[in-house]
Amino acid sequence: MTSTQTAATRRHRLRPALRPALALGLAAFTALSLTAVPAGTAHAQEKRLKAWGNNRSGQLGDGTWTDFRTTSTTVLGLTSAEVEKIAAGGGGSTIGHGLALLKDRTVMSWGANSSGQLGDGSVFSHNAPGQVVNLSDARDVAAGGWHSLALLADQTVVAWGRNNYGQLGNGTNSDSSVPVRVEGLNKVVAIAAGLNHSIALREDGTVWAWGYNINGQLGDGTSASRNVPAPVGGLTGVTKIAAGCNHNLALVGPPSGGTKPTSGNAVKAWGYNATGQLGDNSTINRYTPVDTQGIWLGGVSQIAAGCNHSLAVTDSDNKLKGWGQNTSGQVGDGTTDYRITPVPVPGIKGVQLVAGGREHTIVLLGDNTVRSWGANGSGQLGNGTTTESSTPVTTLTALTGVDKIAAPVGGDFSLAN
């Protein structure tokens, strides 16, 4: 939905406690939502979820359709204290949506909704958070291009949104604007969403995938899309997963109770590889997992994927390596050269969290500050400019004590809490 659409077609949705008494006057509600809270009140002093970058779909959740923000704006109605986890999705530079898992195990959503990716039973976009329906026991969330996932307390998965390639995993190819059960999947401990596919890590260390597969992103040795989960071939002992637009990463740890090998934990990758995002020293698509090149001395603690680039944090010193597409400097090595094997990101250490967007990267450092680099045409680096940077810049989050960050796999905005 664009900023030229009328207020009457923009549907705003707040959780029940924040809905006005009358269901009429939605446009008026936006104006009321933006009224400043008087300084000095308890409400004004509460920390808030923040967002910056492109906002054409309302993906910043601040009650406006302002084109973009180059510094952080406040997501309406959500205090930092009540937010357990955050996720960001998006299928293009101006398309995006956000998810927030609250401590009461409900999920809030905002932004683009043309395929029902907000899970509110409609296909109307909205620029302020509202509740995902029929969902009260979530433990984790993930957001793809136009679809969303939630991991439930019983270790099953539900999904909602676009389903043209079967990315909802419910045995159909029909979109759903409400959560539907992913078929035949249990004992799940982690989830991730790509542009048009989904993956899940089970407690036995196997990875299961479903959805779009033309580039091998399901890792089953074929290019056939699937609308129910199937195991990724030859992959066991996995401890973490990450999904890019059309590729995936998995971190394979040492055996239970064992010690780390001298070469470190193994990073595996599969799927689309035209820009080297698999890190295997090639640009050949891989239909089953391959080893990312390099010796990871001390192991790897985290992995993350942007649209066509990949990232890993080393365990021993919390430093960062990146590889893949680097058109806008999203690898962070000071160049715009594509990297088909991992390279260090200079000057970055003490990394606590890392997230990749369409063509940008953000990290949370040990001092609870945020750094970003890469594309910045919509202000997604949050440093007050629209100038891209191939080296890290300071993100102006207006927050202290940040402990969560998110970026959309195919979009141009960022979240921090």
From TrEMBL:
PROSITE patterns xrefs: RCC1_2, RCC1_3
First and last residue of the signal peptide: 1-44
Keywords assigned by UniProt, alphabetized: Repeat, Signal
Domain RCC1-like positions: 45-290
Transport among keywords: no
Keyword Hydrolase: no
Protein name: RCC1-like domain-containing protein
Native source species: Kitasatospora saccharophila
